[in-house]
Amino acid sequence: MPLNPTDLFDIRSLLSEEERAVQDAVARFTDEKVIPIIGDAFDQGRFPKELVPEIAAMGLLGSSLPEQYGCAGLNAVSYGLICQELERGDSGIRSFVSVQSSLCMYPIYAYGSEEQRQRYLPGMAKGEIIGCFGLTEPHGGSDPANMKTTAKKDGGDWVINGAKMWITNGNLAQIAIVWAQTDDGIQGFIVPTDTKGFAAQEIHKKMSLRASVTSALFFDNVRIPDSQRLPNVKGLKGPLGCLTQARYGITWGPIGAAQACLTEVVNYTKERILFGRPVSATQAVQIKMAEMARRITLAQLLSLQLGRLKDAGTMQPTQVSLAKWNNVRMAIDIAREARDILGGSGITTEYCPIRHALNLESVITYEGTETVHQLVVGRELTGINAF
């Protein structure tokens, strides 16, 4: 039997029956619903909101959270496979699910009160309440301790002032998870987006993540009751804990993008005839495709082991940084190489590599730049903080 070109080491055989079922279901959704429309959505700069009800119905929102809150209760590897298959379609679709699941539902579950969990999580799992995550600010995202947004206590309320930037889902959201400096350190707040003084402005003219909503958030004396504060965390531990959850999913997502690019190249080069033979018959192209397969295989093994560590409760943030750095770099290099092999055809969105390459320019930056993750690993090796 020939090997699967996008799974040369048969990683699939290491998955449980439930994990394979999850992967198959999301793969079908991506093939049938995402891929047929995503090129046009990217061209139009439009997030395909019509997909959200089916995404929710499949249990993909907050999939790792407990069933008591209307969630699927899946393990970490299953969540990773969801991210992989969705990003095989487009990073924008995976980003929507990542933000809703890891950056909005997770902090409510991990840091919120039971009343907050019951109030928000079931509706978020159904896609009836969309969230966004307000951490990054206009002056820079790699130093969250230098946060300028403030929340001041005023009787039984909090008054929030400041701005957030590059916020996925910002103009879709009914709630924003907002992190702000208080007199007692950084704290998180659930801010309904219809609160007086809150404004979201969609960011246009993007050349990346075009099939995704990206916004700037503004807070002008936004007043919310203390019941909207996340009570069970203070300091940077809160937002960084959310980022670790999101980064974990991101280690899987780019594998799907890279697989899509390799599949496109394998098929295209069999049909493209130059100098009397298929392009796939040339040594140079075979070497490039072999290199793609090698790097995808290493990334698959890295993320699978990371998922097993997460499910065992032993995953460390440095391990997530190493996998995010490696796997996004892998995918962006493959997307660029695939675009080159496709020649002139590679610059159109009729083929996926240019779209994935452009999207991955964002993925390699958000949730910690490549340099930040390299320094996290360096700090682990040396014990010295070089930030």
Describe the 3D structure.
This protein is of the alpha+beta class. The chain has three domains: 11-125, Orthogonal Bundle (Butyryl-Coa Dehydrogenase, subunit A, domain 1), CATH 1.10.540.10; 131-228, Butyryl-CoA Dehydrogenase, subunit A, domain 2, CATH 2.40.110; 237-382, Butyryl-CoA Dehydrogenase, subunit A, domain 3. Helix content is 50%, strand content 15%. It contains ten helices and nine strands. The strands form three sheets. A four-stranded antiparallel beta sheet has the order 2-3-7-6, with helices on one face. Strand 8 (273-274) and strand 9 (277-278) form a beta hairpin. The longest helix has 35 residues, at 237-271. The N and C termini lie far apart (50 Å). The mean pLDDT is 97.
List keywords for this structure.
single chain; 387 residues; alpha+beta; Butyryl-Coa Dehydrogenase, subunit A, domain 1; Butyryl-CoA Dehydrogenase, subunit A, domain 2; Butyryl-CoA Dehydrogenase, subunit A, domain 3; 3 domains; four-stranded antiparallel beta sheet; three-stranded mixed beta sheet; 10 helices; globular
* Structural classification: alpha+beta
Mean pLDDT: 97
How would you write the strand order of the largest sheet? Answer: 2-3-7-6
SSE topology string: HHHHHEEEEEEEHEEHHHH
Give the helix level as a range of percent: 40-55%
- CATH architecture annotation of the largest domain: Up-down Bundle
Strands, count: 9
Supply the number of structural domains: 3
CATH class of the largest domain: Mainly Alpha
Question: In the CATH hierarchy, what is the superfamily of the largest domain?
Answer: Butyryl-CoA Dehydrogenase, subunit A, domain 3
**Poorly predicted ranges:** none
Multimerization status: single chain
From the N-terminal CA to the C-terminal CA, the straight-line distance is 50 Å
What would you report as the Rg, rounded to the nearest angstrom? Answer: 21 Å
CATH topology of the largest domain: Butyryl-CoA Dehydrogenase, subunit A, domain 3
